[in-house]
Each structure stands twice: as C-alpha cells, then as structure tokens.
Automatic annotation (TrEMBL):
This is Outer membrane receptor protein, mostly Fe transport. Residues 1-22 form the signal peptide. It comes from Phaeobacter gallaeciensis. Residues 52-147 form the TonB-dependent receptor plug domain. Keywords: Cell outer membrane, Membrane, Plasmid, Receptor, Signal, TonB box, Transmembrane, Transmembrane beta strand, Transport.
C-alpha cells in the first residue's frame, strides 16, 4: 500500500481548517458577494497548469457528433474507436477511468466491459468541457489520480434569448460516409420561476468506409439520446434543478467467438486474426438522474451547492452482461478569504459492479463488487499581491470495499495539491504545480466478475498518484505561446481486468513529456497549434495498446485549429491531427495526418438558420487512431477510422 509523506498530511490539516479561521462571524448577514476573477483561475494560467477548458464556441465550431469530435484540435486529449459505443478518452495517454469524470457535477463510473467506452455521451447539448491533466483540485472529487474531466451541458437559460420565455432548436444532417440521418429537437422555456428543457437526438446509418474504400464492419451509427431538465429559482436566488437523461447505442457490432465458445462483441476491433467476425446487436446504455440545489444570489459566506446523483451504465456484449451503478452526492460551500475563496465540503459515493456470463460451466458464473467512499475536502484559490496567485487544497477519503466472494477491505488516505502563477514581466508568466492523490480501491470489470474462474483478492490494495508540472507562457495580446513539462506516476493500480482472477495484482503507470501551444489571434479569427509528447510506461516498459483501464502509447501528437469569420454570414475553419511515428513500442506505430475543414452560412434575412458543410479527413487518409485498442497487437485487426466524409447540416432556432 502506498503511503503519503508527512508534509502533505500537515498541509491537508492546515487547508481543511482555513475556512473556519478566515471567514468571520458565521451569523452575520452581508450583502451579495461578487468576487473578481482570481488570476490563477484565468483560462491562460489554468491551461499552462494543464487545466484546459473547451468552450461553447469551440464546441460549436467543431460541430461534434461523437465524443471523439469534441476533442478535435486537442493534442493532449485523444479519442478513437469507431462507433460511439467503443470510444474512450485518454489524457496524456492515461485512460479516463483513472480520472474523475463528471457530467454536470454528477460522478460517472467506468465501463462494464473493456471493449466498450467508459462514458457514452451525446454532445448535442454540451456547453463546455474542463480537463485537468494530472493536477486535479481537491474539489474535483475522489479518484482523480491522473486528473479530471468535467462535462457541462446547457440549461434553458443558456438557450433562451433575452426577453423570450419559449424557444427551440432543430437540427437535420446527413453525411456521405456512415451517418445517413442525424436529427435532434430541443424545446425550452420559462414561466415565473420555473424553467424546463426537453431534448431528443437520433443518429442512424450504415458501416463507414476507411480511406481505402473498405467497409469497416460494425461501425454503423445507431444512437438515441433523451434529456429532460426542470428547474425552479426563487426571487431570492434559491435554485433547485432536476435532470434526467438516457443515452443508448444498440447497433450491429462486430463479434467473435471467445472463452466458452460464446460470442463477444468487440466494437473497438475490426476483427481478430484467430477467427471470423459476425454482426450481432450489442447494447451500451447510460441512465442518469441528478438533483441539485444552489444559490445564484449568495449572501455573505453562504454560497452552497448540494447535489445527489444516480448513474447506471449497462453493457450487453452477447456472451456477457454487466452493469455499473453509482449513487453519489456532494455538499460544498464557497467561503471568501483575503484575496480569494475556499471551497470546502463533503462528498460520497456508493458504487457496484455486477455481471453475468452466458456461457457453459464457469463461463455462466456471476458476481458483484461494492465500493463505498466518503471524503472531506477544501480548495483555496487566491491572489497574494499583484504578481503571485496560488491554488492549494487537500482532501481525506475513507473507503469500504466488498469483494465478489464477500471479503471486506477498509482504508483511507490524504490527497494534497498546490500550484502557483507568478507574473515575471508584462508578457511572461511562470506556472508550477504538484499533487499527490490517494486513489483508493478500484472496482473490477462488471461484465467479467468471476467469469471463467473465481476472483482472488490476495494482495488487494489502494493506489496513489504523484504529479508535477512546470511551464512558462507568453502573451502580448496577439501572440500567445506556452510550454510545460509534466509527469504523472500512478502506483499500485489493482487489476480491473484480472489475469486468472488475480484482483490483487498491481501495476505502475507513468506518463511524462511536454505540452506546448502557439496561438495567433486577430479581429476576425484565430490560428492555434498544440503539440504534446507523452511517453507512457507500464511497469517500466512502453505501454501497449491493449492496456485496458490504464493507458495507450501516445508519443508525439500535433493538433491544429483555426477559424475565420469572412463576414456576418460566412465563416470557415478546421482542425487537424498529426501523429508522428512511434518507435517506443514493440511494434512500431505508423504516423498519420488528418485534416477536417468546414464552411458555415447564416443567411442575413434568415437569422435563425445556419447551413454548414463539413469535410472530415479531407485527404482520405487510411489510419487507426493512436488511442485505438489493439493497434500494436498481432492478434488484432486494427479498426481504421472513417475515410473522407462530407457532411451537410442545417440548424434552425425558433
């Protein structure tokens, strides 16, 4: 079991006590408190510390129809894997299952099956994405070993025009490769203190073709998404929100025979070399319910957020079935201190992983694991003088774990983080940060609990991560440039997908390298280049492309993005991803270059209509994404990404 140095424990105790000594009399009524932005929380400072935000404007310009499209233009964050059911996200080469992932603050669990993605997501209502690459703050939630990903979706208030009480958006699209029809309808409104939003999305089509014109079996679009939101806000700012959503992918997927002679869908592969593939209907379904209380007019020290969430992820992979369930909550308050604020509170979760095999003998077994966690946290963010800004925090988590055979484990640990932003001159700034995060126990893969053999928990333990980052940035208003060195070590990761049932087997993962960015802005547009080199190692050797729930061999990835508003009616832009050849792995990974461009037209006399033309993979490159599964395995036929795809989309606001 990994231990935490004494200096971090001392820092944790000091930080947790800060709000109680710095806020003044608790009973005193004060005017509504409006704080200026703390400098270290500014977008440029956070980006250098590895905490990027993909904004609403960037999401709209990328026009995403899948999780992978959301991260176009990013070099440190990659995704791949064909259909929505199989797409996984990696941050500096580390899989998202080792990060804290939330949607509108609600905790998300990992996948129930390693051949499918971790969080099934429809980006239709996506407002922003905040990514922390290694240095997650204490209030990002438990389990933020390698950082965090926070998705935020739109509410009715984000979509209504000033003075309107009702509105809607309709979208209709098609493409030449894979998606035959993409449609969505969103209705929203407000009356008195009430707000509501109803949205539905449907994507359907056939298998896409790669750059060589070969159909890629089992990649058809078949996604349905429903979202409902209801909110009430009193005149004094007390706001209650309830959200419910269900996202489902149940298309025909490539399946092959596996253990016990039963079929398994493997939508992350084009096939396997040991036998043929057939099409079978798989299922990935995510269902979420969230209740949130906040105060939009905080009085004095009272600026609370209370949230309860239920999240369920189901996978039906033909030969096996698995379900991850999570009930979680957060109770936090933002306190004002000199030069900034402290966010402190409590969070908890109860999660289960349960599965069943559908084969003969030991391949018909089933099992269930359970994990309970309670955490206390505090995170301070403040300016210290005119040139120095800091963020520092700590949390303590206590967990109880129950294994599939009834064994019980209990442990707790401290986490701490600190970062600093120092103005060196009018144009130059230095940023640095350190974090040590206790990860706790890991639930195993739900669909394979006890599959083939009973799981053994000998040596089962908790994990810890240590991360650091230091960099500089330049900004003269027109040109922006930054570069940072990073390293993240995650140790004692319990086997989520155990060999011969050995859940107590552990692994050590390391990602280190450099993040750099160069951007030029002018009145009507921007051009940006991001470059990331991530050297990812597992147990001291280059990580492979089937290190499920751990990482992938990234190497050098370059991302380009630009946009230009020609006039008030026409805009153009695009993204590109360039992956250089990676010779660090046992099997050399080839490089590739993919370019996407678009043109959008909003007729002046029809101000609520936009027509957009996208050309993805402009040069018809044949390639498998650097983050795809099995690309260096002799047993796997790698899944190629779509070839040139021409898409046409019409959007109407009313």
């Amino acid at each position: 079991m990994s231990r935490m140095p004494l200096r971090f424990i001392m820092l944790a105790g000091t930080t947790l006590s800060t709000p109680f000594f710095a806020t003044g009399a608790l009973g005193q009524e004060e005017d509504i408190l409006l704080l200026d932005e703390i400098r270290i929380e500014a977008a440029d400072a956070q980006a250098l510390l590895g905490n990027d935000t993909i904004t609403e404007d960037e999401i709209e310009s990328r026009n995403p129809s899948s999780t992978k499209d959301v991260f176009a233009g990013e070099s440190a964050v990659t995704a791949g894997g064909g259909a929505a059911i199989s797409q996984k996200v990696f941050v500096n080469g580390i899989e998202e299952s080792l990060l804290s992932v939330t949607i509108d603050g609600a905790r998300q669990n990992k996948s129930a099956f390693h051949h499918t993605g971790n969080v099934l997501l429809d980006p239709e209502l996506l407002k922003s994405v905040e990514i922390s690459k290694g240095l997650a703050p204490a209030d990002a939630g438990p389990g933020a070993l390698a950082g965090s990903i926070a998705y935020e979706t739109k509410d009715a208030s984000d979509l209504l025009e000033d003075g309107d009480n009702f509105g809607g958006r309709a979208q209709l699209g098609t493409s030449s490769n894979g998606t035959d029809l993409e449609s969505s309808l969103t209705l929203f409104g407000r009356q008195g203190g009430f707000e509501y939003l109803l949205s539905g999305t449907r994507r359907s089509g056939g298998d896409y073709e790669d750059g060589d014109g070969n159909p890629v079996l089992g990649t058809q679009a078949d996604l349905t998404d429903y979202v409902g939101k209801l909110a009430y806000e009193s005149q004094s700012g007390h706001r209650f929100e309830f959200a419910a959503s269900q996202t489902e992918d149940n298309g025909l997927r490539a399946a092959q025979a596996g253990p016990g002679g039963i079929l398994f869908i493997r939508p992350d592969f084009a096939g396997i070399t040991s036998g043929p593939s057939v099409l079978a209907e798989g299922l990935s379904r995510r269902t979420s319910y969230t209740l949130t209380y906040s105060n939009t007019q905080p009085q004095g020290i009272w600026d609370p957020v209370l949230q309860l969430s239920h999240n369920e992820q189901e996978i039906d992979a033909i030969g096996i079935y698995g379900t991850n369930k999570s009930f979680s909550g957060t109770f936090k308050n933002k306190f004002s201190i000199a030069g900034g604020s402290v966010t402190a509170g409590l969070d908890f979760f109860n999660e289960t992983a349960e599965g069943q095999g559908r084969g003969p003998g030991p391949f018909a077994s089933s099992g269930r694991e359970e994990l309970e966690s309670v955490g206390l946290f505090a995170q301070a963010r403040q300016d210290i003088g005119e040139r120095v800004s800091v963020s520092y925090g700590a949390r303590y988590d206590k967990q109880e774990f129950t294994g599939a055979e009834g064994s019980n484990f209990s442990d707790g640990g401290f986490s701490a983080n600190g970062s600093v932003d120092v103005i060196l001159s009018d144009n130059w700034t230095l940023n640095a940060g350190l974090a040590s995060s206790w990860g706790g126990y890991e639930l195993g893969e739900a669909a394979l609990v006890n599959f083939g053999t009973a799981w053994d928990y000998s040596g089962f333990t908790t994990s810890r991560a240590n991360a650091g980052r230091i960099g500089v940035r330049f900004d003269n208003g027109t040109w922006k440039a930054s570069a940072a060195l990073f390293r993240t070590d995650v140790n004692d990761i319990a086997a989520v997908l155990p060999t011969n049932g050995a859940r107590g087997a552990t692994a050590d993962l390391k990602s280190q390298g450099i993040d750099a960015s160069l951007e030029y802005d002018w009145a009507a547009g921007f051009a940006r280049m991001n470059w990331t080199y991530a050297d990812v190692e597992l147990n001291g050797a280059a990580v492979g492309s089937t290190a499920y729930y751990l990482g992938r061999p990234m190497g050098h990835v370059i991302a380009l993005e630009g946009g230009f508003a020609i006039d008030e009616q026409w805009s153009v832009g695009g993204t590109a991803q360039i992956a250089l050849k990676n010779s660090d792995t046992a099997t050399e990974l080839p490089g590739y270059e993919v370019v996407n461009v678009y043109a959008a037209y909003a007729p002046r006399n029809l101000g609520n209509l936009e027509i957009r033309l996208d050309v993805r993979n402009l040069f018809d490159e044949t390639y498998a994404s650097r983050s795809s599964d099995g690309i260096d395995s002799s047993r796997v036929i790698a899944l190629n990404e779509p070839g040139r795809t021409i898409g046409l989309t019409a959007r109407l606001k009313f």
